[in-house]
Structures are given as C-alpha cells and as structure tokens.
Recover the amino acids of this structure.
C-alpha cells in the first residue's frame, strides 16, 4: 500500500439510491476535482457542479472539500455527491481514476486515518463495528468506542503502568540511595490498584465483545421436553417443527434474534438420549459440541415428568459455566416447586413465564457489567488485556515477595507492550493488514 497515492471509492452502499458518493483522499484530490468539475471548491462548503470527463457529462451534483489535516483521513478529502445509481456511480469513479486516483483497498480510508493519528486502532475497528451492528445496543456500544470511551480507559491504565515502571527502573538505576524500594507500601498499593483497574477493564471488554459478536444460547434437554416450542417463542415464528414424536429435531437449528437489543444466536439441539439411529447419534454429538461453545445454556426439563431423573440423565454433559434450568409445561402443574435464581417455571404453550426467562437471560448477560455503558470490543482486545493481566500478576507477585527489581521491571515492560497493542501504539504491519482488510471498500 502506497500512502502517497490518491485513492477513491464509492462510499455509499451498493444498489439504487437517491444520492451516491465518491470519496477521494490524497494529495491529488483537489486537482482531480477541478478537472472533473472545472471548479475550485471552497473548504466545507457544499457547491453545485457538473461532472464532465473528456467532454462528456457524467452527472451533476454537489462537491464537498475537506482540506488536510482537518479531515477524516488527515489528507485532502473530496466528496462528489451525485445520483445514486450503480451505473452512474461507476462511470464517475472510473473518471476519477482516469484523472489520477486509484481504487481504494478495503478499509484504506480508515487505515490512513489511523496512520495519520486521526483515530487509534480501537476507534478504527469501532467504525466497522458500527456499520455492521445488528441491534441498537450494539450500535450504541460501537459509537462509545468510536468516541474514545475504551481508548481513554486503556490510556488511563497505561499511564498508571508507565508511572510505576519509571519509578521502579529509576530505583534500580540509583542503587547508591540504599532504599528497599520493593518494600515501599505506597508503591505496593499502586500495583494492587493497577491490577484491579485492569481486571475491571477486562470484564467490561468481555461484556463489549458479547455485544459485538452476539451471545450464543444453546437449548438442550431430552426428547419431547419442549425445546423446539421454546425456540419458536424466542423467534416469534414457527421456526422449528413441533411434534410429540421423539427425535423430531435431529440436527441443530440456528436462528439470529435479539433480546432487549442484545444480538443472540439461539440454537435448538437434538434431544439427548440413548439411540441406535445413526442420524440421531450425530445430532446428539453436535448438541454436546454446542454445550461447550455456548455462552448460556437453557437446560429444558419437562416439569410434568420426573424432573430429578431428567436432570440426572443430563448430569454428565459438559455444561458451560452459565446455565438456566427451564422447567417447561408449567401449565400442567397444580403446584410449583420452589426454585433458585438459576431456575424458572415456564409454559411454552401458554407463554407463561417467558418474559421472566428473557429478563433472567438479560441479567446473566449483564453480570459482567452494565450494557448501557459498555463499549464495543473484539477478541483481539480481550487477548491483549489478558496477556497484560498475566504479566502484571507476575510483576505484582515479585514485587510483594521482594524479588529482584529487574524482574518486576521486565514484567511491567511486557505488560505495557501488550496493553499498547490494544490501541495500536505498538502494532505489527501484518496485524494492521488483517484488521483493515475486513472493512468496507469506501471506509
């Protein structure tokens, strides 16, 4: 990628629309605009123009000019706004390229904004997350990351970490002072406070990742307990076939839904039981795999039958840490047993208790933090925060156990390096290429 090139792309979505936009960024953006419009645009002022190339009128519309460095990319940026038909947009883009620009690569506008210090890497990724948001809550979380909520928290912890590291390395460099700096109570407290701040940030990032990628919920249980009926309640549709015949669901059934604005992939699985049917066996095998992958498991029990026996038959399954036991067919009971917080009575037939079940799921998702204030995060961020926490934990152990100061300083250096990779202060070119290649062409 040559950053001194002038790049161009269609910035609006594919298809027919009232308005289409060609975005141009680079040193020759103003020159190209002048060639096509025969006008010298004024900064930040919408101007009417006719777009002409080789004597042929392509379209007419509006020019917007954002001079460097006060633009999205930090370079001269021109937007040509014309009619939003795919043919006329492509004709205009080809004219721009003929005048000296080249087709932008996926994410190249955002990458230039990052390289020119207009945004950090977290904010760049938040742009893509905002565009691909599937729910209102996910969009709000991405917007908070784009506005710098996540980056600011990382910066605060990074400042604490650097301050502690500077103090320790200075103490190592001046041994003539004969001070046992590792026994300093104030610095020990700073180390512990830093550890707690990082743990809190990791929990918030994990919450943000759920909003970004969505929550996977698996529905499991024995045959004929009402798993498919429960799935249909969630989807508000006859998604799964409901039948009294055991083994009707022989494979996993997946549906994307949202629960109070949270994106959810909900999966109905084959009934868990002993069978000689090879197709059912494969379905049960896949159901067990879902158990290990899901963020939340709904264990469905037929409350009109022997509930303890059903739970016993499922007891050796590899359940995830978060599980809700759903006692279905509550409409058939004359008296309901007392349940704990991770259990609930419902009737998939009458919808009794279903709203309470959704609220219980929401509470479980919220257990790592307040969704209303969470920010968008990715698995890359989680990995780097976990590595930072690991190095910091080792440094804290060495610090509190009065080990060699050089070991503490090295652990803090590694922690700082991992934390810096979150916002892109320290990032390899390969990682940048991987991140921005997933963006839209016009972004």
């Amino acid at each position: 990628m040559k950053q001194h090139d002038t790049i161009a792309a269609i910035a609006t979505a594919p298809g027919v629309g009232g308005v289409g936009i060609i975005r141009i960024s680079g040193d020759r953006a103003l020159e190209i605009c002048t060639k096509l419009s025969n006008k010298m645009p004024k900064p930040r002022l919408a101007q009417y123009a006719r777009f002409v190339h080789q004597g042929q009128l392509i379209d007419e519309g509006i020019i917007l000019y954002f001079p460097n460095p006060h633009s999205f990319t930090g370079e001269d940026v021109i937007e040509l706004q014309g009619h939003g038909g795919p043919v006329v947009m492509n004709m205009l883009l080809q004219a721009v390229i003929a005048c000296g620009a080249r087709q932008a690569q996926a994410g190249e506008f955002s990458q230039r904004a990052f390289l020119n210090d207009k945004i950090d890497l977290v904010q760049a990724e938040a742009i893509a997350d905002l565009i691909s948001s599937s729910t209102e809550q996910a969009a709000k979380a991405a917007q908070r990351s784009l506005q710098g909520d996540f980056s600011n928290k990382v910066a605060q912890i990074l400042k604490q970490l650097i301050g502690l590291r500077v103090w320790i390395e200075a103490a190592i460099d001046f041994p003539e002072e004969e001070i046992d700096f590792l026994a300093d109570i104030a610095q020990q407290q700073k180390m512990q406070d830093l550890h707690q701040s990082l743990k809190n940030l990791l929990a918030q990032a994990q919450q943000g990742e759920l909003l970004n990628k969505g929550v996977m919920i698996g529905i499991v249980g024995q045959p004929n307990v009402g798993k498919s009926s429960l799935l249909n309640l969630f989807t508000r549709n006859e998604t799964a076939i409901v039948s009294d015949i055991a083994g009707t669901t022989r494979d996993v059934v997946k549906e994307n839904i949202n629960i109070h604005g949270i994106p959810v992939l909900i999966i109905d699985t084959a009934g868990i039981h002993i069978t000689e049917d090879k197709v059912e066996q494969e379905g049960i095998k896949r159901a067990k795999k879902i158990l290990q992958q899901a963020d939340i498991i709904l264990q469905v029990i037929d409350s009109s039958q022997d509930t303890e026996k059903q739970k016993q038959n499922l007891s050796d399954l590899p359940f995830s840490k978060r599980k809700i036991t759903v006692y279905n067919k509550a409409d058939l009971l004359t008296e309901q047993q007392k349940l704990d917080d991770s259990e609930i009575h419902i009737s998939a037939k009458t919808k009794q208790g279903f709203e309470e079940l959704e609220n219980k799921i929401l509470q479980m998702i919220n257990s790592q933090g307040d969704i209303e204030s969470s920010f968008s995060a990715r698995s890359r961020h989680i990995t780097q925060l976990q590595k930072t926490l690991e190095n910091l934990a080792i440094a804290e152990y060495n610090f509190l156990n009065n080990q060699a100061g050089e070991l503490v300083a090295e652990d803090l250096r590694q922690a700082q390096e991992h934390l810096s990779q979150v916002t892109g202060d320290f990032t390899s070119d390969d990682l940048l290429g991987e991140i921005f290649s997933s963006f839209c062409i016009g972004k």
The chain has 14 helices and twelve strands. The CA atoms of residues 120 and 176 lie 42 Å apart. Residues 245-250 have pLDDT under 50 and may be disordered.
